[in-house]
């Protein structure tokens, strides 16, 4: 544990920063387009159009975070379900996973608290409501199935693209596109969480825990299901690093690119594929 923290604490902080930034973006854009007193809300009376604009903003936010230098360094999981699935696949070491998940929860909460400072009482208005995720009119059962489905779809996309060198550089773009489509199409069913830390970040300061069990189970189960389906039916082996975008200018704590983590003397593990399709050693931690 101590060794992992000493060497990888920058990546843990980046994960907190990434989800925190995503939550600030979600709160601000929701307030701008959904708060009744906003001129943008009054100018755009169509609910679907406003949701599409918010979805586009959040998709672009996700893409920006994924391809940013910091996002390239940590892999921009921003989601405990993503990290736990990569742990299940043997792509992330246990202590790295524990610190990633902790950082995601803390970062998401800090992002919402900062949003409250920025927006004041606007964030408490029912139209914004701390951007909490709650089931839609169709009920909790539909929300559970919807969350499981979109989580499985996201992880299946990540595994299918990141493990193909020709598609790997575009995984982050596909992820942002799915965020946009999910908010546009699926949000009325469950609020489009797909992320336990994202739900907790809104629920803790607001006290809105409506059917909270959905958002702590369905995303994890959905992504684990996608991983199982990939392993069962895909002919392409799982060689890629657990990153949405594996750049060439940042170190990688998963495969050791562009070199071993400073101070590592442990023998290397083989067989992790990077962005360029080359197989590199992955330092044991």
Describe the model:
With 285 residues, the protein is mainly α. It has one domain: Glycerol uptake facilitator protein. The protein is 62% helix and 4% strand. The chain contains ten helices and two strands, in the order H-H-H-H-H-H-H-H-H-H-E-E. It has helices at 2-34, 39-43, 47-67, 69-74, 80-88, 94-119, 140-162, 171-190, 196-206, 212-233, and strands spanning 268-273, 279-283. The protein has a two-stranded antiparallel sheet with strand order 1-2. A hairpin with a 5-residue loop joins strand 1 and strand 2. Helix 3 (47-67) packs antiparallel against helix 8 (171-190) and helix 5 runs parallel beside helix 10. The longest helix is centred in the N-terminal third of the chain and has 33 residues, at 2-34. The radius of gyration is 19 Å and the shape is globular. The model is unreliable at 259-285 (pLDDT under 50).
CATH architectural designation:
Up-down Bundle
CATH topology: Glycerol uptake facilitator protein
Strand order of the largest sheet: 1-2
Q: Indicate the percent of residues in helices.
A: 55-70%
What's this model, at a glance?
With 285 residues, this protein is mainly alpha-helical. It has helices at 2-34, 39-43, 47-67, 69-74, 80-88, 94-119, 140-162, 171-190, 196-206, 212-233, and strands at residues 268-273, 279-283.
């Amino acid at each position: 544990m101590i060794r992992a923290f000493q060497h990888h604490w920058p990546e843990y902080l980046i994960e907190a920063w990434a989800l925190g930034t995503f939550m600030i973006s979600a709160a601000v854009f929701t307030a701008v387009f959904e708060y009744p007193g906003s001129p943008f809300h009054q100018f755009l009376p169509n609910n679907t159009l406003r949701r599409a604009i918010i979805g586009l903003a959040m998709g672009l936010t996700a893409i920006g975070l994924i391809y940013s230098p910091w996002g390239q360094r940590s892999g921009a999981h921003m989601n405990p379900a993503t990290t736990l699935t990569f742990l299940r696949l043997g792509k992330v070491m246990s202590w790295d996973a524990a610190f990633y998940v902790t950082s995601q929860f803390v970062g998401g909460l800090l992002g919402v608290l900062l949003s409250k400072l920025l927006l004041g009482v606007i964030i408490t208005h029912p139209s914004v409501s701390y951007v909490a995720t709650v089931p839609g009119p169709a009920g909790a059962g539909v929300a559970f199935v919807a969350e499981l489905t979109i989580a499985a779809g996201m992880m299946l996309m990540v595994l299918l693209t990141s493990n193909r060198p020709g598609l790997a550089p575009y995984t982050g773009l596909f992820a942002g596109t799915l965020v946009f489509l999910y908010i546009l199409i699926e949000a009325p069913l469950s609020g489009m969480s797909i992320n336990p830390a994202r739900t907790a970040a809104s629920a803790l300061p607001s006290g809105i825990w409506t059917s909270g069990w959905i958002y702590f189970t369905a995303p994890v189960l959905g992504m684990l299901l996608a991983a199982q389906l990939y392993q069962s039916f895909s002919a392409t082996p799982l060689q890629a690093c657990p990153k949405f975008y594996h750049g060439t200018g940042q170190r990688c704590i998963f495969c050791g690119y562009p070199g071993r983590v400073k101070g590592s003397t442990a023998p290397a593990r083989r067989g992790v594929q990077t962005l360029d399709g080359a197989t590199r050693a992955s330092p044991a931690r």
